[in-house]
Amino acid sequence: MSWKYIAPLRLPRGHFVAIIVGCWLLAIIPGVTFAQGTGEPATETEPAPATAPAQAPGDDAANEASTPDAAARPATLFEKLTAGNMTWFMLPIVIASIIATWFSIERLMVLRRRTVIPYAFVTRFLEHLEQDRLDPQLAVKLCEENGSPIAQVFAHGVRKWGKPSVEIEQAIIDGGERQVSNLRRHLRVLNGVATVAPLLGLLGTVVGMIMAFDQIAGGTAMGKAEQLAGGIGVALLTTAGGLTVAIPSLILYMYLSGRVDILVMEMDALAQKVVGLISAESIAERRENDRPSRKKAKDKVTAESA
C-alpha cells in the first residue's frame, strides 16, 4: 500500500503572484518607450528682425544642419542607458532581477501547503495510529515513501516508538530543524537582492552625477541646460531600476518568510499529536484504559461457557 500523495492539477495563487512580480521585475529590461514627442523638426522659426535681409534657401539648410535633430535623442530605456554610459551599472541590477524572479518562483512552488503537509497522508496516518493499525516498521516505511517534509518529521518521531515523550520530542525537534532549514533555503537570496539592488542603483546615480558635474567643470555643458538635465536624468535611472527590483524582492521575502512560519506551526501541532500517540506514557495509558473492557469481555465469555 503506497501513501504517496498526488495533488490535483490546480494552479496555486502563488503562481499568479510570481507572474505579476516577474513582469514587474522585467520592466527594467530595455524596450520601454518614453513619451518624448515625435521628434519631428520644428517648422516654425522666430521672425527675423525687420532690418534683417531675407535669407536664401541655402542659409535655411545650413541652419537646420547646425541645429541638433530631436529625433537623434534616445527614446528608449536602453538607448538612454547606453548613451549615458550607465550600462555597467544597470547590468548587475538586471541580473539581480533575474535571480530574484527565479528563486521566487522556485520557493512559491516548494512552499505550497499540499507539498509540505499533504492532507491525505497526514489524515490517514493519524487515523491509523489512533486505531493501533500501524507498527513502528510500517509507519517508518510509509513516511519514507511519502517523502514530504511533515512525513520526514513524523519518521524521526516514529523511530523512537515506545520511548518516553521527552525523547520522542527531542528527536522530532532535531528532524524538524532540518526541514525548517530546507524550507527557508534561498530566502536569504531575496533578502540580499532587496538590500543590494538599491545600493547598486545609488552607486550608478552618484557616478552619473559626478560625470554630469565634470561636464560643467570642463565647460562642455556650459550654457546647455538640456544636456546637463539629460545626464542627471540618465543617472537617476539606475536608482529607479534598483528600487524596481528591491521592492518586489522585499515583499516576496516577507511573504515567503510568513508562509514558512505558518507551515512550521502546523507541523509542530501535528508532531505533538504523534508524540501523544506513540510515547510510552500514552501507550501505557491506553493499555490501562483497555484493561477493564478486556476483563469484562473475558468474564462474559466465561459466563457463556458455563
Automatic annotation (TrEMBL):
InterPro entries reported in the protein's UniProt record: ExbB/TolQ_transport, MotA_ExbB_proton_chnl
GO BP: protein import
Membrane topology classification: Multi-pass membrane protein
Domain MotA/TolQ/ExbB proton channel: 148-268
Keywords: Cell membrane, Membrane, Protein transport, Transmembrane, Transmembrane helix, Transport
Annotated Low complexity bias: 38-60
Subcellular location: Cell membrane; Membrane
Region Disordered, annotated ranges: 38-69, 286-306
GO cellular component terms, semicolon-separated: plasma membrane
Residues passing through the membrane, by range: 86-105, 189-212, 232-256
Keyword Transport: yes
Pfam families, alphabetized: MotA_ExbB (PF01618)
Family matches, as PANTHER family: MOTA_TOLQ_EXBB PROTON CHANNEL DOMAIN-CONTAINING PROTEIN, PROTEIN TOLQ
Family to which this protein belongs: Belongs to the exbB/tolQ family.
Protein name per UniProt: Colicin uptake protein TolQ
UniProt organism field: Symmachiella dynata
Lineage, highest ranks first: Bacteria, Pseudomonadati, Planctomycetota, Planctomycetia, Planctomycetales
